[in-house]
Amino acid sequence: MSGPVAAPDQPEPLAGWRWWTGLSVGGAVGLFGLAGLAADAASTMPVVWLRWLIGLLLVHDFVLAPLVHLVGRGLRDRAPEAWRWPLQLGLVISGVVVLASIPVLVGVGRRTQPGNASVLPGTYPLALAGVLIVVWLGVLALGTWGRHRRQGS
Amino acid sequence: MGLHFTSPARSERTTAILGIAVGVLFGVCLLTGLLSHLIQQPPAWFAWPSRPAWLYRWTQGLHVFCGIAAIPVLLAKLWSAYPNLWRWPPVRNLAHAIERAWIVPLLGGALLLLVTGLMNIGYWYGWGFDFIRTHYWTAWIVTGALVVHLAAKLPVVRRALARRRAAADTAADLERRRFLITTGVTAGLLLLVTAGSAFTPLQRLAVLSPRRQGVGPQDLPVNKDARSAGVAGKLNDPGWRLTIRGRVARPASLTLDDLRARMAGPMGHAARLPIACVEGWSQEASWRGVRLRDLLEEAGAPAGVAVRVQSLQRGGYSSAVLNPAHARDPDTLLALELNGAPLHRDHGYPVRLIAPNNPGVIQTKWLESVTVL
Description:
The structure holds 2 protein chains of 2 kinds. By secondary structure, chain A is an all-alpha fold. Chain A folds into 2 domains: 43-78; 81-153, no CATH class. Chain A contains 6 helices and no strands. Chain A has helices spanning 16-39, 41-44, 46-78, 81-106, 109-112, 124-152. The longest helix of chain A is centred in the middle third of the chain and has 33 residues, at 46-78. Chain A is flat. Mean pLDDT of chain A is 90; it is low at 1-9. Chain B has 2 domains: 12-205; 217-372, Oxidoreductase, molybdopterin-binding domain (Sulfite Oxidase, Chain A, domain 2), CATH 3.90.420. In chain B, strands 2-1-10-5-6 form a 5-stranded mixed sheet. In chain B, strands 3, 4, 7, 8 and 9 form a 5-stranded antiparallel sheet that branches. The chains are: A mainly alpha, B alpha+beta. Chains A and B meet through helix 1, helix 3, helix 4, helix 5 and helix 6 of A and helix 1, helix 2, helix 3, helix 4 and helix 5 of B.
């Protein structure tokens, strides 16, 4: 593997009319949103809102991203080359599908309308297991195909 | 430092391509979200047409499913730019400090929109604040921060996209392409297992969707059932009447039998129209009832009027205003039947509104009055 690569977007001087126009327009739009949020405080609960915003940012930056980084690093260092991408594909798809399925898996929504059978009507753990089985069968097929191709060449 | 970034999949080009994809997806979400906001709270200059009947359904499908597709794309974008978080020194000058400060509302806001949006379509209101208003204002904050970010990164994006490598098949290129393919496949798979709640050809694959087409009373999902709306005890009241009032020459008070008699006569009409929820799911169904415009004409309402429909429900979405285009549309019905049978109580028995190109939450159920404005 190659050595350390340069981090993306090398420092650029922030200057020129495009930057200042963008900052002015974007800043005005963003402040309009902040002002609206603050003016509507009884509904938007800015302190709770801020806790969510910062909390999600921290969870991403200091839990999720380092975890993904370490798993990716492990894959690059340890997995056989033919299996590296299939495994990466399988892990990324599985991770994201599981994360995106948390609301239906937890199923809190059913409690909001106990008599409404059309809210969260699925058997989600089973459905998720089915989706993941299909994904990992695909991983197996892709890895096997890659290994044969490598041996053939 | 413990984190040592070595993946060749990271590059300016990867970040630029993913950044553009996030920008497009969030742009679609912003426009379709603002449109729905305008339709539900129309200012004086805005009139939403009643045709084409499918338009609102498509805009809200785009809103929710672009949001779902944005989950892996945003995460991939953040992964590709993650080393920047650890760059030293963290700021170089005042302009750079400003640019970095705007990343907090940009990323935190974007994550907040996606996470609470996803929870909201799953009916999980675990935050305390009002979802609609907070989603609306956060969208403006993120849009502003996105413009600032774009202004800062535009030179980088142009440079990254203009650069054509001489040897396109290097190992690093292959890694980058595979990373982008992984992101695309993940977004595609998420859509495949959810979008069938709106897009009928994928109906059977929507196994992880919080709603399924065809699942619900009379084979149609229900947004709010009669019990949760607090109307269950009022629906079999023999004293129920639908009143037609306001700016009319001949106010009326109609029983259910009066309405059925009109449905059997020339005022009766059947239409295939979608219920389109702001939460993304939608489904077409067959409705039969009395044309609203014929009832208004019978009551002697002036031409081209707006009307307010009022539900037996109190609070929530208990009333709605129909603009003149919707009120006079030949398919706008006070519906008594759904898919060939009398309305189920969760679908609005004894009578509900159904109009083309209208948000589901204002297709008011359990009607008690129509007021000409």
